[in-house]
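name: query_chain
kind: protein
chains: 1
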Amino acid sequence: MKPDRPLELVRAARELAADYDDFRAVRGPGVGNRRTNDFMERLGRRATKLFGEGVRERRLCGENALAVDFYFDEEATIVEVALGLPNPASEFEKDILKAIMAQANGVVVHRLVFVSRPGAKKKCDQPGRRVISEWLARSHGIRIEVHELDGEPRASRRRQ
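structure:
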């Protein structure tokens, strides 16, 4: 049986996140963006080493600047690293749109895998996102999987 390369990438992301000191810490706009960019660059290099050229930053959505983080053609799977998925406003819907646009452009997509921080599964199981996931599977044949990096969810910051 062939290995599931998208799940191998999820494992690589977990290993890489563990290499950072307190990967889950909120760092703010400047420092946080640089750390995320560094993580994505390192994960991209690791993906290239594991799977060869052509799986990262794929422009599958037509003639625009949208790109998916990773695409595995043999598995018909898009992998999006969506660290903000546990947040109320996240890239969830935009990443789904990219998968639908890729399909509309003739790319075979059966699975959309999200890699995120702890708390993402719980957030994606809430009614609004669950209905969207069910619609995506029913209408487009794309199944969503949410995989969390290791650790505990961030503490909720409520407005006072």
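note: The longest strand covers residues 111-116.
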